[in-house]
Specification:
The chain has 401 residues and is mostly helical. It is 74% helix and 1% strand. It is built from 16 helices and two strands. It is globular, with a radius of gyration of 21 Å. Mean pLDDT is 87; it is low at 193-213.
Length: 401
């Protein structure tokens, strides 16, 4: 058996990440469902390892020492994106949309716990198959998997992957048809004038001080240094919270420090951080984290869990669709933009923000522009829900551990 050290494992992950992008570009169905390239590449390795296990052969062993730092780096990037300036751009609409998403995340967990108990499984199995992987997607599910495994959830990592993947497909399939049905049945039309107060505000990703640092190398280096600083300080904060008896994922402290630094910079302009550089580092870390985590996934842990997973996903999909029809549509204005938002909401509450954007784009190509929807849904789905969802999951983990 060949054992790959951390650098070799990361290099292998990078190779299969590129393979995933190549496969997705050549298989339109994968692109249509917005299946992430890291998931494709990592899953290929996991399936290969599963086949080898059936032949009683273990050809490779991966040292995933870099998995945790990459995961923390991604969620630190989420923290740096959490600017209060974004709330001022969208105002009440963003806060309301975030509140609705957070309420649904709680409901997803309650439904999941009920389904888990019906099948004689640990209650936290329902949280894994609830907001951890549906509202959170594969990254959040895999980030919390060690906590769930320690709390007695069988095959937590494999369950997280399977449920997240199935949710991505469901979000892609349901989002656009649901909104189209609402638009047709209610006779909703795009606003005659697409100018709005939000359009006149600053861009959704304000970068007030970035113009002072035009050198890309300097901006990238500064972003990397501040991200590492947030990760280092955040480790102390997470350790301190752990001493208080709270069960938390390793990234919580770093994510909070990142948000604090970002908002100080927005207000005072001390650091001149580049949002684009932070996003690039965070997204790269996410891709590598996912592919490395999936390469080391034990798919054989899913044996015997197919029925609970399928039954739960069916009811979760019904829940999201019903929530979009009411109360989300009503509270967001019961207009065309609200219907498009419902499409995006379905996409990221069952899958990822990529699903949400794909669903909304297909609708606007057919029916016309929805500027308010494209302001609100991406801001909430891309990172604000990750903040509140992390709190929701942490509360459930500590209540049922």
């Amino acid at each position: 058996m060949l054992t790959l050290d951390p650098i070799q494992t990361l290099a292998c992950g990078g190779l299969f990440l590129l393979v995933g992008y190549g496969i997705r570009s050549r298989v339109p169905l994968l692109a249509r469902f917005s299946i992430p390239a890291p998931v494709i590449g990592g899953l290929l390795v996991a399936l290969f390892m599963l086949a080898c296990r059936q032949w009683a052969v273990i050809p490779l062993r991966f040292d995933v020492a870099f998995e945790q730092p990459l995961m923390i780096a991604f969620f630190t990037g989420i923290g740096f994106n959490a600017s209060t300036a974004l709330l001022r751009v969208g105002g009440r609409q963003i806060l309301l949309f975030l509140g609705l998403a957070s309420v649904l995340a709680i409901t997803q967990n309650l439904l999941g716990i009920g389904m888990a108990e019906a099948f004689g499984l640990p209650p936290l199995f329902g949280v894994v198959t609830g907001s951890a992987t549906l509202a959170g997607g594969p990254a959040t599910g895999l980030a919390f998997a060690p906590l769930f495994a320690g709390a007695g959830v069988p095959g937590a990592r494999s369950v997280a992957l399977a449920n997240a993947m199935a949710g991505i497909v469901c979000g892609s399939v349901l989002g656009s048809p649901l909104a189209a049905l609402l638009i047709e049945r209610l006779g909703l039309k795009p606003a005659a004038s697409i100018q709005s107060e939000e359009d006149e505000q600053a861009p959704a990703m304000p970068e007030a001080t970035a113009h002072r640092f035009a050198d890309p190398a300097c901006a990238g280096l500064k972003s990397l240094v501040f991200m590492l600083l947030a990760m280092g300080i955040g480790a102390w904060i997470s350790e301190g919270l752990g001493l208080l008896g709270l069960t938390l994922p390793g990234y919580i402290g770093a994510m909070l420090v990142g948000a604090l630094i970002r908002n100080i910079d927005d207000q005072l302009g001390w650091f001149g951080l580049s949002v684009r550089s932070m996003e690039l580092i965070g997204n790269t870390s996410l891709s590598l984290f996912l592919v490395v985590a999936l390469m080391d996934l034990h798919l054989w842990d899913l044996a015997g869990l197919a029925m609970p997973l399928l039954a739960n996903l069916l009811l979760q999909s019904v829940l999201v669709v019903a929530f979009c029809c009411w109360p989300l549509l009503q509270l967001m204005g019961r207009d065309y933009d609200a219907a498009v938002m419902a499409s995006g909401f379905t996409g990221f509450m069952l899958g990822t923000t990529a699903n949400a954007m794909a669903c909304m784009s297909s609708l606007t190509e057919r029916y016309g522009p929805a500027p308010r929807a494209f302001l609100v849904a991406p801001v909430v789905g891309a990172f604000l829900i990750d903040f509140t969802n992390a709190i929701v999951i942490t509360v459930f983990v500590n209540a049922w551990k």
